[in-house]
Amino acid sequence: MDDDKLERIAANDTAELMPEVVEVLKEEIERRGLGEGLLAGVETMADGGPAEEEVELFVKRLKSVPCPECGAKGKDNSGIIVRSVMSFILLTTYSAQPKVCCPDCAKRKKLNALIKTVLLGWWGIPVGLFRTPLSLWQTYRDSKQKEGQSEGILLTYVMKDYGYLRAEWGSDEGISQIVRHRNDNPEA
Q1: In angstroms, how far is the first alpha carbon of the chain from the final one?
Q2: What pTM, to 2 d.p., does this model score?
Q3: pLDDT tens sequence across 32-65
């Protein structure tokens, strides 16, 4: 098994592993020298996950790193949902993707999705006619619940990528790359 696959297992699957397998995983991480952060993440997840204080610390860290989208520093990142509808006569696609980025990127992404939805959402029969106004209403509702929604998205990112974030704790660029990957692959 290569190092990348071992890191993915350590970062994503530790909580589901049997204790004996976790011990083998820890030994293999140490033997290969894959990093103390990854090892600490495995131990934390094997013990039931991070404490609430640690999760809050990770959320603050996600807010403070350079924007994963544009690299801007000094702007607090937040979590948003980008909703869009595109229709082509009989085919309508809807997406609601969580993203973590700076306020400028958030505004740009939401505006682009809104324009795409307004221009291309209506053309599907019959789904586009119903899905487009619903998406527009959900986008409006999201704008009224920014803070709660942002915290929920940041928390989800921390819990999904805890092992990777722990391994890259000291590297702003490393954490930004992890968040960028999650932005591009929300289901990964």
Answers
A1: 20
A2: 0.80
A3: 887 777 788 888 777 777 788 889 999 999 999 9
Query: Is 146 within 8 Å of 78 (Cβ atoms)?
Result: yes
C-alpha distances (whole Å) from 100 to each of 16, 20, 28, 96, 104 are 27, 36, 33, 13, 11
Angle between helices 3-12 and 36-46 (to 10 degrees): 40
Taking the domains of the chain in order of start, what are their residue ranges?
1-49, 51-188
Concatenated DSSP letters of 4-22: HHHHHHHHHTGGGS-HHHH
Asked whether the bond before 103 is cis by omega within 30 degrees of 0, the reply is no
Tokens linked to 42? 């495995």
* 150: pLDDT strictly greater than 90: yes
Q: What is the pLDDT of residues 50-107, one digit of tens each?
A: 788 889 999 999 999 999 999 999 999 999 999 999 999 889 999 999 999 999 999 9
Pair of tokens at residue 35 = 């990093």
Tokens for 53, please give them.
């204080």
